[in-house]
Amino acid sequence: MRYPEFIKKGDRIGYTAPSMGATTEPYASCFAKALEVMAERGYGHEIGKNVYKDDGIGISTNPKAAAEELVELYLSKENQALISAGGGEMMCELLPYVDWEKIKAGKPKWYLGYSDNTNFTFVATTMCDVATIYGPCAPTFGVTPWHPCLEQTMEVLEGRRTQVENFDLWELDDYRDAEHPFAPMNVTEPVVIKSFPEGNHSFTGRLVGGCLDCLVNLRSTDYDHVAEFNEKYKEDGIIWFLEACDLNIFGIRRAIWQLKEIGWFKYLKGFLIGRPVCFGEAFLGLDQYTAVTDLLAEYQVPILMDLDFGHRNPTMPIVTGALAKVDFTDGHFCMTYLEDLHHTKLMRKQWR
Hints:
By secondary structure, the protein is α/β, with parallel strands linked by helices. The protein has helices spanning 27-40, 63-75, 100-105, 118-128, 148-157, 212-218, 226-232, 249-261, 290-296, 340-351; strands at residues 12-16, 44-47, 81-84, 110-113, 132-134, 163-165, 169-171, 187-190, 194-196, 201-211, 238-243, 268-274, 282-283, 286-287, 303-307, 318-320, 323-329, 332-337. The two termini are 18 Å apart.
């Protein structure tokens, strides 16, 4: 796995919009505020023009232009990391226009985003063997005050954190809107992590995953390199992390079935499942738990659910492609990235 160099004060962060840009409220105000916060932290910026465009369908602009900007900023020497301007709906349409050979050959760079950004975080890791970070998009860094998950994300980007843990409370109702763009995360609900089977668990494996809505759309396309990824890292074993946005409980079950049937789930060590947007739904004898566990129980590996990542804040940063050790003890979740520092030193030596 190729790990990018960590960022440091004085570096520039690049911002691009391969999915939606930051043109509507509260995202426009939050993005502008995020730039101020990052400047106070010691970072400059390089902003792609598509961040301020909204002439696309479900993404910032036309797919070819969005792809070209993504590759340009990923390879640019003017920034040392990329943060996506937002999620969206149709980032998949830019995949044919991405020059993946350039991504493979280029110096690896951290890319941070979630939701529709699965189309890059997942594909770049499984196809190009480069680590990415599944975590907050740029406007979230404009909320005031920061939730600890944002500091945690920056510490991962800066190479000052190799361990992430669950938080105490999560956000059921989001108060951020055009009139209150900087409203902090409204964390009110106690975090209760469920394990299947019940009990404490500890396992180690290579992390891969993202938003189910996007993953199920990628299966069997030219961007499905899961089989090769699984074989390359079978000695490490695989930990899948999954969460859902628009899918209801039956959509989640169908997506899990599809990925299972196509053979993605091999050499398994465990599953990490984030809180879905449809949290608490139940219908026709199905709920968010049985939607997953009914189909995955046969693998006889731990399944941890309602974890802090995805579309229900807060969200801990997940380094896609990393070798990680998961410890779940007495309701507390802790995940340690085992090789980031070591491999980053190797990469720095290689690219000097």
